[in-house]
Write a structure and sequence with these properties.
Length: about 200
Amino acid sequence: EPAGFLDAHSVRFSRTPNRAAAAFDPLDPEYAEIEESIRTQGGNQVPIVVRRLSAKEKGQGNHRFELIAGDRRLRICRTLGLRVLATVVDNLDPAQQILLTMTENTGRSSLRPYELGRQVIHAMKIARKSQNEIAALLGLDKGQVSKAVAIAKLPQDLVSAFSSARDVRYSDLGKLQAALKVASARVVKEAQKIKT
């Protein structure tokens, strides 16, 4: 369906893993840049992508749509009290939805390794495709995807040693994995050294 304006509160957020929480912080430079653009333009110029909810999915809420792509744009439009420009796509199966979400995220701005890894793991389950197949579908380097998945699989207490999961870099992976092999008790201390 062509793009049109929707009440931003008629769209529910997806349950699909997306960006790390820090990506939605108004102090994050990328977020602030998107917010300033939307404020200046009086709305989002790039449509979000949504799917229509079935009567069963709507339940008791006032949501009529579910977000597929455009989480930050939707959040900002809600905060600013603006209607949101959206494209409605129906008849997508869950695998197509997650691949559309990932294509949009990787095409617009780079996902951080942890974010990419979480999305690839989810896509592998939903789409029943291998890491390499997901990488090929998204046009990403297989090695990069492999490292991102390894980062997303790191123990949560290790990732929590960083100020944000978004701060874990590809170059940190080898040091963190080596530290895990040596002594898991030292891992958090190593992560804290790396982040500084």
